[in-house]
Design a protein that fits this description.
The complex is a heterodimer of chains A (about 100) and B (about 500). With about 100 residues, chain A is mostly helical. Chain A contains 3 helices and no strands. By secondary structure, chain B is mostly helical. Classes of the chains: A mainly alpha (about 100), B mainly alpha (about 500).
Amino acid sequence: MSAELWYALVGVVLVAAAFGAFMAHTHLLRRLLAFNIMGTGCFLILVGLAQHKRAPDPIPQALVLTGIVVAVASTALALILFRRWFAATGRTTLPEEDDV
Amino acid sequence: MTEAFVGASLLPLAIVVPLVWAVLALVRPRRRPTFLVLPGLVSWVTICAGLWWYTSRLGVLTHVLGAWPEPLGIALRADGLGSTMALLTSVIGSACALYRLWTPIDADASEAQRWFWPLFFMLGAALNAVWLAADLFNMYVGLELLGLSAVGLVAISGRANALAAALRYLFAALLGSLAYLLGVALLYAAYGSLALSSLAALAAPDTITYVALALITAGLCLKTALFPLHAWLPPAHGVSLTPVSALLSALVVKASFVMLLRIMVGVGVTIISPSLAQGLGALGAGAIVWGGWQALRHAELKMLVAHSTVAQLGYLFVGMALLLSGSAPELAWDGLMLQLVAHALAKSAMFLASGTLIAAVGSSRVTDLSGVSRHMPLALFAFGLSGVSLMGLPPSGGFSAKWLLLQSALASGQWHWAVALIGGGALTAGYVFRVLSASFKQGTGDKFDRTPLGWDLVSLLLAAGAIVVGVVATGPLAVLRIGAPVAGVTP
């Protein structure tokens, strides 16, 4: 098995496991962590599988860099919202649907 | 300087200029932001109108940033759909901005006042980045910018229910864009290109393409709030500030839909089987019924309007099914385009009018509207006018859109969509008349707060726009056909 395929397979396992965790947990911090691990798996697939023609390829690298920036920014925004939500209500989970 | 050069230079400006105003609004926060915001709006509308004008005269415009060739460089492309959506965005954005400027400044909401304008212009730049993107990755960047600024705008009031809605929205948006990114990675692995034009030529029906398209479709449907993935939408659109609700419902959900449309008709049309396309349409029909039903029974006015958005988005997916699997795709394309434009105008008008009614009554419940018809005739008229377009009564834009979709369904022999289209109109009539009849009831109390006249004018103008689009539909439709990737559609 080539190294690229190995990266991609690890990435798939990470994405699948993290997606399961994202769906299973209700604690907002756990969901955020699951999202970050899902992102990491996604980046592994990008650099692994998408290295075209088996040579260093700048495009997936640029994609992953942008993806990391986006993930950091979204994590920061989610943390701020979560802190505000916790300060306002003292809860660590979201209320049930239709409970607006 | 040739005309084509001037037209193409407007492409980067359409993204950069709103960004500049976002930065200006961030570093120079004002207590009275009018003199900062108005020049921003004027320049934004001017550039987008210029772009639309040049596209209508010269056809598809492209611009390669910094002259770096693809695939490493970033290409922008304005076809009829892209430049029309850009113009629509600037017009509806300006209307919402004026509504916000006319809102009396609330002393304890100074922080919201401060963050609103940077996020607002960022939202405009992100929308233009999506409309004008020529490859899958620029679309991703635009979509992420859009998601982050939209979530920020939802949370801006800082109330607990707004924070919960923003968090739910953020999680849905993040999940959707990760699925999309994964799909893009697979497409790149298979074909070594991200440009829509070259993918359209290369794409073949194999497993990796199917998986990639499935991931992209699932992610973008979550972001477009297609039934049954719509649960995040009503709270996010229902609890935010009124101009924010209008922007989100009219434009933001359309961004991911337009991306999906471009990918489906560009890359997927030869690959997607008719039954899969029909499946997407079936979800759209489900959205029409479920959204309409929820709107009929919801107690709060803005939640009613938000559920109406879920229903109206369903029409877009029915149109997409007709586009991909029907025998009259040119009619479906026209209907789809008109639905995009007419719903954006009508829904922004309806949200702004609802916000005015709620401010006048001092309550967000539909039943508390009794007696409002005598005091707020203009706002109620705007609400009714936008309702006419959403129901699909002639001569509105909504009527022409649904008529074209209906013709496309009948020409393809797909009668089942006709049932959904007509039934959806009946449900829409039900919830619009529910609001109107509550407003015409004799009120017990006569205490109504005064609202700015500008609020009424803005919503009236948008609602009138939704009607006028139906009357003069041939002009915009000719532009919207420019560069359309559908067989049989020529300007």
